[in-house]
Task: structure prediction
Amino acid sequence: MGFTYRIPLSQPSLGEKEWQAVQKVLKSGRLSFGPQVEAFEEHFAQLLGVDYAIAVSSGTAGLHLCMCALGLAPGDEALTSPFSFIASANCVEYVGAKPVFVDIEEESLGMNPHLISDQISRRTRAILPIHVFGQCCNMEAIQQVARSHSLEIIEDACESLLATHKGQLAGTLGKAGVFGFYPNKQITTGEGGMIVTSDKRWATLFKSLRNQGRASNMQWLTHERLGYNYRIHEITAALGLVQLERLALFNAQRAQVANWYTERLSNIEEIQLPRIAPQNTHSWFVYAIRVSKAKRDQIISYLAQKGIQTKAYFFPCIHLQPYYREKYGYKEGDFPIAERVSKESLILPFFAEMTQKQVEEVCETLRVAVQSI
Ligand SMILES: *Cc1c(COP(=O)(O)O)cnc(C)c1O
Result:
């Protein structure tokens, strides 16, 4: 607060093509449910190699609809991770079910498959792994546990577009996967999200649920179920289409920026670099390092004074957020790995168009900070 950052945490890549695409929609006069949404969904499904992609107003909306499709209700439980953005637990709360947390593993920072069985009860209905920072959870092991207990998997892939686990894409490893397009994600539409699935029944259900419970063959004022307004507009979809075209370039640029960071930070003893599990490829949502928890806040202020924005992330863990503490009585020590990672993690400025010179400046300032504080 109060600082102007010369090097911000994130910055979307928007250019002439996005500008033209938006103008084209405005000139067309068709602002909702038109050819842009259809094309965005079609291209997205193709990219992921799934049968259906359903665009929604946010990643959170997509997660909520997945909970509806599962039929989760009060009394049900879903297993999820405490080391995530709040939406991945809130979506379970929206339908009156209970999110039950499973601690994470240090390598992928995703839910630890070996700890899942301990948390399964008669009420458990689904597993919600979150692929954080651009890297998949240990999905093969999670899939095995899910199969042996007949649980569905819904993937929160909002941070991990194009990340892979054993060669398979994040979002395609469960019954449905959800992506988000907030301005800091790999591609952005301002606000927006996408659900992917290869289940035809679920795809039809999602289209109805996002559109006030209407079926596709129905009159506009006929509603066969309780639905929501989670539609996206044509402008959003037009932006998404252009961003999708540029995604391969963005991800190559992000990988380059990550490499620059890794090269320059690897010889600083006080800094722990991001780890990548051998079966994973990273899609670099953020570049997260770990530093001594006693020094982290001072490091953040030092960098801020130099015009460089960094952030404790994710902090605090979800179970330690006021709402969850109050409702379920969670406390410090409940999920020790997630809490330790949460106290040590720091994300650095990171975006596709970041220059080598900017990375150098961040690294040099960071070196001085960690060695002098
Ligand atoms: C960004 C994100 C979401 C979705 O966020 P929206 O702002 O609703 O699009 C969900 N889960 C995680 C882990 C995220 O990072």
User: Anything to note?
Assistant: The CA atoms of residues 288 and 362 lie 13 Å apart. The mean pLDDT is 97. DSSP finds twelve helices and 13 strands in the chain. The two ends are 21 Å apart (CA to CA).
